[in-house]
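Fold Annotation — chain and its backbone

Encoding — discrete vocabulary of local shapes
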Amino acid sequence: MHKTLILFLLSTLGFSPMMVSTGYAATSSKLNPNLDYSSDSNDGPLITEDNMADGMVHVGKPAHIIFYHRECYNSKRQARKNVEIYEKYQGKVDFIVVDLDTDISKGQRELKDRFYKKYIPHVTIIDPKGNVVYNSSGEVDTNTLSAILDISIPL
């Protein structure tokens, strides 16, 4: 299908065409090994990824987005779950990390403005058609995330 038509169709569903890209998704998701899960200490970035600043939702593929602050033990625990999910779904789902304690890219800023509700951690999952299928603050377990992603992955 022609990219312009896809962008038009997504925009009619309320999905901003500025958030759709044919760029690269973040890859090589790794958890910071120095995280202290018992405190709100700033242990540095919770998750590191290649192409982390991409911040774009891609046409035809589900997206898992996590918003976090470094000084939050709930965010640290959710980051660990995020990396577990990444290991299971890498290549099938775009993983986007928005570290709210750093300068964020234009794509990440658009995601923050659209989905982030000022509470952390915050996870958003978007299906391949651009529909939001999960958008909530607080920790969410890996079984719940897996169930949502399993339904969202095209066959």
Remarks:
- Residues 66 and 123 are 5 Å apart (CA to CA).
- Residues 1-25 have pLDDT under 50 and may be disordered.
- The domain at 3-152 is CATH 3.40.30.10 (Glutaredoxin).
- The beta strands are 20-21, 27-31, 47-50, 57-58, 63-68, 94-99, 122-126, 132-137.
